[in-house]
Amino acid sequence: MKNISKFLLLTIFAMPAFSQEERVIAKVNGEPILLSEYNKNKELLSEQYAAMSPDFLSQKDASEKIEKMVMDKLVNEALLRQKAEAMKIKVYERQIDEGIAEIKKRFNAETSVQADTMLMEELRKQGLTMSQFREKVKRDLMARKLIEEVVRPKVKTPDEKEIHSYFNKVNSIVEGKPRDPNMKKEEFEEYSNIAAKFKEIISERLRLRHILIKPASDSITDKNKALNEASRIKKELDGGADFEDMASKFSADKQSAARGGDIGYVIKGMLPEELDKVVFKMCPGEISSPIESKFGYHIVRVDEKRIAQKFKYEMAKDDIAQIIMQNSFADEIEKYTEALKKEAKIEYLNK
Which residues contact 317 (CB under 8 A, 6 or more apart)? Predict the structure, then answer.
């Protein structure tokens, strides 16, 4: 449970907590925690685990663990805000403006005017005035500042021995060695997640562009039309047509089409199996014949090929030092909030 708590604590202030439902599910020194905040945070945390550690969600008690983590998170946030207010930590109007600007970026709006409109619409839905919203942002920034001023200075830079020890444990997993029986399951999961990230970096990778021709339906007739269209485009490419222009004009994958068909770097296992089997045998500059997948017909060009690397200490040590410091930072936050809990009155009501 410890490394799960670390993940939780490092996500504090990841997003604003709006409050639409008025049902109170807990009180922290009299400050209410609302069901709407709980549900919003539960949804967010579940999505993060689905992306970062899907195996966790398959555990039979995953739901209970997430519910506890969310409640702990909301209680900790309230305690930190209250402590920051008691310490009279100063936050300036300019910093509140910057905090709101940071929040508006999450709307993925095309213009600042559109971002303003989307924010005001969200506040309207949640029954908040701009003044109330600014006060919430201010309190969250005060708590963040409290952490930076009081907790972060306690985090020490790891020494070489500590970094080497962590590297050896990760490297053991990268090399596929069996789990050390002395290592706890949760510890092993933490190192496995880190090992998976490094594997992505050192694996053979390709940078690809593609043109996707999608059939109008699953009928044989529409599939044949799509294949004929893909074959026509391949013939034009063989005749010297510009791949990026053709992708922009004809690809059904509009997101990559806007970048001339660029889908970035991929490693084995990321693509549909039909593509995987072909593209990793191709050379830079080579353009494939149409390849069928469940999405349609792909014409693929390999732009760059990077060979697999050996996992070495020198390449990983800076990243590992940062990971160790993040873990230490989370531990210090946990210690700090646990001390605050001992002095607090926390009431849990039925959800």
Answer: 163, 167
CB atoms within 10 A of CB 236: 14
pLDDT over 80 (residue 142): yes
Per-residue pLDDT reduced to its tens digit, 280-299: 999 999 999 999 999 999 99
CATH fold of 205-306, please? Answer: Chitinase A; domain 3 (3.10.50)
**How far is 92 from 84, CA to CA, in rounded Å?**
14
Specify which residues 292 forms β-bridges with: 297
2-155+325-348 topology per CATH:
Triger factor/SurA peptide-binding fold (1.10.4030)
Q: Where are the domains of the chain?
A: 2-155+325-348, 205-306
Measured distance CA(347)–CA(33) in Å, rounded = 10
How far from chain centre, in Å, is Cα 138? 25
Report residue 182: phi and psi, to 5°: -85, -10
First CA to last CA distance, the chain: 23
Mean pLDDT within 300-307: 94
CA-to-CA dists, residue 30 to 9, 55, 87, 125, 347, angstroms: 22, 38, 18, 26, 8
Would the CA dihedral through 233, 236, 241, 243 be positive or negative?
positive
Let me know how long the chain is: 351
Plot region of 269 (φ>0 → left; ψ -120 to 50 → alpha; else → beta): left
Q: What is the CA radius of gyration of the chain?
A: 25
Mode of pairing for the β-strands spanning 346-348 and 24-28: antiparallel
Helix (H) or strand (E) holding 196: helix 185-202
Categorize the per-residue pLDDT at 4 as very low, low, confident or very high, splitting at 50, 70 and 90: very low
DSSP at 177: P
Beta bridge partners of 302: 208
**Predicted TM-score (pTM) of this structure:** 0.69
- Write the Ramachandran bin of 60: left for phi over 0, alpha for psi from -120 to 50, otherwise beta: alpha
The Cα 42–Cα 27 span in angstroms is 18
d(CA 32, CA 26): 6
